Amino acid sequence: MTDTLSILYVDDEPDIRLIVEMSLKLRPDVAVRTADSGEQAIAMLHGGDWRPNLVMVDVMMPGMTGPELLAALRKDPDMAGLPVIFVTARARQQDIADYIALGAKGVITKPFDPIRLAEQVIALTR
């Protein structure tokens, strides 16, 4: 991969945001920004000249949930095609099927291996 993969990671838990950011930055071809809510993510996506190639989002957050953020992105013509990966502890087979049916590109289960996280993400984007 020669181009930089630019990721917005959305999670209400600061420790998880930090671990994900550090894990993804182990690869020099991955750039990460974080948001602490779905609302902040939407503001970041609309508020400047930066545009990620991928959004990774926690499923269960106060306020706007991950699925609600995905639905909001799909309704926005400028964001409708932006790939979304859910990161969640709710990862029963039916849960994963439901997330994919909503339009998620993939699902990464918590707890995840921080050393392998970037490789998992890249595999899901291919």
Strand order of the largest sheet: 2-1-3-4-5
How many structural domains?
A: 1
Structural class: alpha/beta
For this structure, the quaternary state is single chain
Instruction: Describe the main β-sheet briefly.
Output: 5 strands, parallel
CATH C-level: Alpha Beta
Total count of strands: 5
* Parts with pLDDT < 50 across at least 5 consecutive residues: none
Mean pLDDT, to the nearest integer, reads: 95
Element-by-element helix/strand order: EHEHEHEHEH
Radius of gyration: 13 Å
Percent in strands: 15-25%
| CATH second-level architecture | 3-Layer(aba) Sandwich
C-alpha geometry: globular
In whole angstroms, how far apart are the ends?
10 Å
Query: What level of helicity do the residues show?
Result: 25-40%
The gist of it:
The protein is an alpha/beta fold and 126 residues long.
Question: Could you characterize the architecture of this molecule?
Answer:
With 126 residues, this protein is of the alpha/beta class. The chain has one domain: Rossmann fold (3-Layer(aba) Sandwich), CATH 3.40.50.2300. Helices cover 39% and strands 21% of the residues. The protein contains 5 helices and 5 strands. Helix 2 runs parallel beside helix 3. The longest helix is centred in the N-terminal third of the chain and has 11 residues, at 14-24. It is globular and about 35 Å long.
Question: Which terms would index this structure?
Answer:
single chain; 126 residues; alpha/beta; Rossmann fold; five-stranded parallel beta sheet; globular
